[in-house]
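Private note to self, pasted from the team thread so I don't lose it. Backbone tokens:
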């Protein structure tokens, strides 16, 4: 070992390693497209399995903590309790998805069809609204070039429709990709339920590997660390989805009571965008107002007031109750993390940036910080020993 360390310290070794790294980087950059295609192919092959692992991980608390430990606690045999817990979880998920699809899909399809069929009427209404605003401005001696505004709007609308017509093949291709993605997702769901059913066997196998790699003391610390990360992640994802569901249901009830157009479509949009931290509620509100203002500007204003109220209630009452305190991330860093997450992994990165940062804080405090403190103690002790 001593000879190896002395050999590594020689300058020729460092120069050789640097040259090899430079050549490797050049080759990677030169064949980046081929490497990208390779990893895309690997991801296409493994994505159902990875999706299955994620689904099994997310629904394990439902099967384990709720059904096995609460509903089926009187079942004596562990294997029977676990099997029944997984079966009940699958049944509940199927029922919930079926109810959501039956309730929402017809309304959403109807809303989208209505939006497309009434596109020309909306253009006329928008022009009429501009004329009213121009008349109001003229009565207050404010000059507005109405013809230019109408021409800009008409050109924009026509360009959107032409863009859709000219890129119909591309749009159909994207729809096909979405269909393929949905198929992959459902295959992943099947894998997920298989992994959930085989949870005990898989965990025993992983624990044997970890026991062979770690000492008993280090294994216990590692288990505590990942247990804390698991609790944070599950809590964040669960509370975020529940919060989005509450806001979505409240929006649906309000839009139905006030007879707001596109009620189901707007409720779905608001619920989905509410999952995105910080910017999500603003995006959902903007999309909802755009749809409603084409039908009724007054109802759009009422909807805006409702969104402001529900988001205030959500931020000050619902989220504090659900999350019960901070995840350990300073408020100043939240926006930075969201932007970085979006740059790295898009929408998924925006959603998961905060829980992953919270897990990193735990890992830093439990693993990295103690090592840094020990290192600092050694460095501070050197002059005394000298």
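Design output:
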């Amino acid at each position: 070992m001593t000879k190896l360390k002395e050999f590594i310290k020689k300058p020729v070794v460092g120069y050789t390693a640097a040259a090899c790294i430079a050549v490797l980087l050049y080759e990677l950059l030169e064949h980046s497209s081929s490497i990208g295609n390779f990893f895309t192919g690997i991801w296409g092959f493994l994505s159902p399995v990875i999706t299955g692992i994620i689904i099994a991980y997310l629904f394990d608390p439902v099967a384990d903590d709720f059904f096995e430990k609460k509903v089926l606690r009187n079942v004596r045999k562990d294997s029977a309790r676990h099997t029944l817990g997984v079966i009940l979880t699958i049944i509940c998920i199927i029922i919930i998805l079926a109810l959501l699809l039956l309730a929402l899909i017809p309304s959403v399809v109807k809303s989208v069809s209505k939006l497309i069929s009434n596109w020309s009427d909306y253009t006329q209404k928008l022009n009429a609204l501009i004329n009213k605003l121009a008349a109001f401005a003229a009565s207050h001696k404010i000059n507005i070039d109405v013809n230019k505004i109408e021409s800009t709007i008409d050109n924009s609308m026509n360009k959107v429709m032409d863009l859709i017509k000219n890129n119909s093949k591309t749009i159909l291709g994207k729809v096909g990709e979405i269909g393929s993605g949905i198929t992959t997702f459902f295959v992943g769901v099947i894998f997920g339920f298989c992994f959930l059913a085989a949870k005990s066997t898989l965990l025993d196998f992983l624990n044997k590997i970890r026991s062979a790699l770690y000492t008993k003391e280090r294994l216990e610390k590692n288990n505590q660390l990942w247990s804390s990360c698991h609790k944070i992640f599950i809590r964040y994802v669960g509370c975020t989805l529940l919060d989005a569901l509450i806001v979505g249901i409240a929006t649906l009830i309000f839009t139905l009571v006030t007879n707001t157009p596109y009620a189901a479509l707007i409720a779905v949009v608001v619920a989905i965008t509410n999952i995105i931290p910080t910017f999500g509620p603003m995006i959902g509100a903007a999309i909802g107002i755009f749809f409603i203002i084409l039908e009724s500007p007054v109802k759009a204003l009422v909807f805006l007031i409702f969104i402001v109220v529900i988001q205030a209630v959500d931020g000050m009452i619902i989220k504090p109750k659900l999350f019960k305190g901070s995840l350990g991330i300073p408020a100043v860093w939240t926006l930075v993390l969201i932007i970085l997450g979006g740059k790295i992994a898009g929408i998924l990165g925006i959603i998961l940036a905060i829980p992953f940062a919270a897990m990193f804080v735990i890992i830093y405090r439990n693993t990295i910080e103690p090592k840094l403190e020990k290192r600092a103690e050694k460095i501070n002790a050197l002059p005394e020993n000298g």
